[in-house]
Design brief:
This protein is of the alpha+beta class. It folds into two domains: about 230 residues, Aminopeptidase (3-Layer(aba) Sandwich), CATH 3.40.630; about 150 residues, 3-Layer(aba) Sandwich (Aminopeptidase). Helices cover about 40% and strands about 25% of the residues. The protein is built from 13 helices and 15 strands. It has a 15-stranded mixed sheet that branches. A hairpin with a 6-residue loop joins β2 and β3. α4 packs across α5.
């Protein structure tokens, strides 16, 4: 196995401490074709970079462990969900997975994985400035990296150093949780390095949080007339035939559920607009692979509302304990006046509060999603931030972005006033 060693400017692995050399050499003999960078000032830490999915196998066990034990779960960076997406959506993009490791105090023990950062390299809007952004795609709704709670600051520091040493002036972190371990750690590290980030955008999206019971949650969240309307619509549905709420049960084959979901979604507005999963063969394959793998590892909840044995609303939740992510929902538009999606969401809330031990569920919804915002009363902050890695050009760029934003807003306002004046004449 040949491991290419990336030496940092002004540093040499051969001049490092014996502990640092031992850490690097040990992984060189055990890992695949990953690129290696040792971190000056953090002799026990190093960065391994996997440019392709086939290079990940030596890291897979550590990655799975961190995904299940991090303080800030993100199912979309769980290897069972991320790797099928890497195969499907990469399409020539410059993707790589950055692993930050720490050597154990006992060198005979295996190293500790401290952070996983799936990244895409691309040019920024400023010529001459390269950036790395956290990977996301059309079916990924959170890009918060996975961090070991004991070594979060060191992992973030190592990432910033590695990015700068390899010529990347910006780190583009979109769709990150704005109240969690990663964001707090990032701000602490940047304050230490005297680096100022730029917040591109931020919004709140619906979050379901465990309360004492379903009824108390509903009474707190929904007004009386809203609850009466939902109950009335349910009674009307029950009058049409045999109304039933079902869950995918252990030992039950998952393929019929997947087929029903894909068909139900394709028959609705997404099918009409050509955006349904079934409209793209590679998307269908990815969706099926993710559900089959997460079902095998107890990371999937799938349930639905059935009328006379036929599904009229289906929902997929991806579990990443102690939380979950409401990934996909589909409903039969022929029953739209009875709000089958709302009826299913009511059952989802009841199931969450009464029959699971989950602490929260992320809606994965846009900020203005009227249905879920009405039913779920808590919120999660989502941010998009740009972080300069320390270079002059990158720091000038992020420092000027607020002024550029204000200038564009002023220009749009002036153009709007001129347009209104010309129309009034």
């Amino acid at each position: 196995m040949n491991l290419q060693l990336e030496a940092e400017p002004g540093s040499s692995v051969s001049n490092g401490s014996l502990h640092e050399q031992l850490a690097c050499n040990e992984t060189q003999s055990q890992r695949g074709s990953a690129l290696r960078t040792c971190i000056p000032g953090l002799p026990e830490f190093w960065v391994d970079v996997c440019p392709a999915a086939e290079d990940v196998q030596p890291y897979l066990h550590d990655w799975e462990w961190l995904a299940k034990n991090t303080n800030e779960p993100n199912c979309f960076y769980d290897p069972a969900i991320f790797l099928p997406g890497m195969e499907t959506f990469r399409k020539g993009k410059d993707w790589r997975i950055v692993f930050v490791y720490r050597q154990n105090k006992r060198v005979t023990d295996p190293p500790v994985l401290c952070g996983v950062f799936p990244l895409e390299a691309e040019r920024s809007s400023l010529p001459g400035l390269s950036q790395l952004k956290l990977i996301t795609h059309v079916y990924s709704y959170l890009s918060t990296p996975l961090l070991h709670s004991h070594y979060a600051q060191e992992a973030v520091s190592a990432l910033i150093h590695w990015a700068r040493a390899n010529g990347y002036g910006l780190l583009n972190f979109s769709l990150v949780h704005g109240d969690g371990l990663f964001y707090r750690t990032l701000i602490d590290v940047l304050n230490t390095k005297q680096i100022s980030p730029f917040v591109v955008s931020q919004y709140s999206r619906a979050l379901l949080v465990r309360k004492s019971d379903y009824e108390s949650y509903q009474s707190r969240n929904l007004r009386g007339h809203s609850r009466r309307d939902i109950n009335r619509q349910r009674r009307r549905l029950e009058e049409l035939g045999q109304f039933e709420f079902r869950q995918l049960q252990a030992g039950e084959p998952i393929s019929p559920w997947i087929d029903s979901f894909l068909k139900l979604e394709a028959e609705g507005w997404k099918g009409a607009e050509g955006t349904a999963i079934l409209a793209f063969e590679e998307h269908s394959r990815y969706f099926r692979q993710v559900l089959e793998q997460t079902w095998q590892t107890n990371q999937l909840q799938m349930h639905g509302i059935f009328l006379d044995g036929e599904p009229i609303a289906l929902k997929c939740n991806l579990v990443s304990a102690p939380g979950a992510f409401a990934w996909k929902i589909a409903y039969h538009e022929g029953f739209a006046k009875y709000s089958p999606g709302v009826q299913l969401e009511q059952e989802n809330i009841r199931l969450f509060q009464a029959e699971t031990e989950l602490e929260w569920m992320d809606s994965c919804a846009v900020a203005s999603h009227s249905m879920i915002n009405r039913l779920w009363c808590d919120r999660r902050s989502i941010k998009h931030i740009l972080v300069p890695t320390g270079g002059l050009l990158a720091e000038c760029y992020t420092s000027c972005r607020p002024l550029l934003r204000w200038t564009r807003k002023l220009f749009r306002n002036l153009c709007g006033r001129m347009t209104r004046k010309s129309v009034s004449r």
